[in-house]
Design a protein that fits this description.
There is one protein chain. By secondary structure, this protein is α/β, with parallel strands linked by helices. It is built from seven helices and nine strands; from the N terminus they run αββββααβαβαβββαα. It has a single domain, classed as Alpha/Beta hydrolase fold, catalytic domain (Rossmann fold). It starts with 9 loop residues before the first helix and ends with a helix. It has a nine-stranded mixed sheet with strand order 1-2-3-5-4-6-7-8-9. The C terminus is likely disordered. A hairpin with a 7-residue loop joins strand 2 and strand 3. InterPro entries: AB_hydrolase_fold, DUF1023.
Length: about 280
């Protein structure tokens, strides 16, 4: 699959930015295309940036119209809000990267063609983000395959795989070096039943928890099915936010449930109110 590379860079984006509800576009295909990249928060000044990479069925055509709680935009906004609640003193941003031609349905996702085609664009994005920022790739389902293939040339301190059907690779050396690999699987997620193999362009590679890849497993709590990893207040979402903030000692194993500290939540709401008042003034 050959596609035209996306063009993005914070300097260019600031000059030609397109305002959207709650976020800013960093890149977008023309109408009728498939790809869109949006940022929530100020990526140019952020200390921590999470890059969400969704799985199959996501594209420009449904990106702004989907009302589902597990839509990429909703997940991006919720992850940013959770990061701000956990660490109101830090500057955080979330990039929602639908920057590849995702397979339309799960049965189209048996090959890694789309993942290979998109991986270089995802890696390129990480090199345009501020060098001082802590960057975390968060891939859900087929999106984790894209993220895994991007790591060979991406700049990321952490990579989180949620409900991964495979990281696109067979050996740890294919993931580059210096990136911490994390994995979360819900108890009711049937993705576990998919064979983790790769034969040329067939199959999606090894499970991130395979000893050869050596990901660190974290708890997800009682989340529903394959699409519940961003459930508000869930252990899964909290752990993703903790990793994205570099608060590794707070990441919990399976079976442990915690909630956002009330003091941190109140502080985040107070800070948001102050910003809104200042903007209105």
């Amino acid at each position: 699959m050959t596609v035209t590379p996306l063009r993005y860079g914070l300097e260019e984006a600031d000059a030609t930015i397109v305002e959207t509800i709650g976020g800013r576009l960093l890149a977008c295909d023309p109408p009728g295309g498939a790809r869109v990249v949006e940022v929530f928060g100020d990526a140019a000044t952020a200390d921590h940036i999470a890059v969400i990479v969704p799985g199959n069925g996501q594209h420009l055509g449904n990106y702004f119209t989907s009302q589902e709680a597990h839509s990429p935009r909703s997940r991006g906004q919720l992850l940013l809000r959770t990061m701000q609640e956990l660490a109101p003193e830090s500057r955080s941003a979330v990039v929602v990267w639908v920057g590849y031609h995702a397979p339309p349905e799960w049965y189209n996702a048996i090959t890694n063609d789309a993942a290979y085609a998109g991986a270089s664009d995802l890696a390129a994005l990480t090199h345009y983000l501020p060098r001082a920022a802590h960057i975390t790739l968060v891939g859900h389902s087929y999106g984790s395959t894209v993220a895994g293939l991007a790591l060979a040339s991406a700049r990321a301190e952490d990579c989180v795989a949620l409900g991964s059907p495979g990281m696109g690779v067979v050996h740890r050396s294919e993931l580059g070096s210096g990136t911490r690999l994390w994995a979360g699987y819900g108890e009711s997620d049937r993705i576990r039943l998919i064979p983790h193999v790769r034969l040329g362009r067939l199959g999606l590679g090894r499970d991130p928890l395979h000893p050869e890849l050596g990901a660190t497993s974290f708890g997800t709590g009682d989340i529903p099915g394959h699409c519940g990893y961003y459930t508000e207040g869930s252990e899964s979402l909290l752990n993703v936010a903790r990793i994205a903030l570099g608060r590794y000692d707070e990441v919990t194993p399976a079976g442990v449930t915690t909630r956002i500290p009330a003091r941190a939540a109140r502080a985040a709401r107070t800070a948001q109110t102050a910003r809104e008042v200042e903007t209105a003034a």
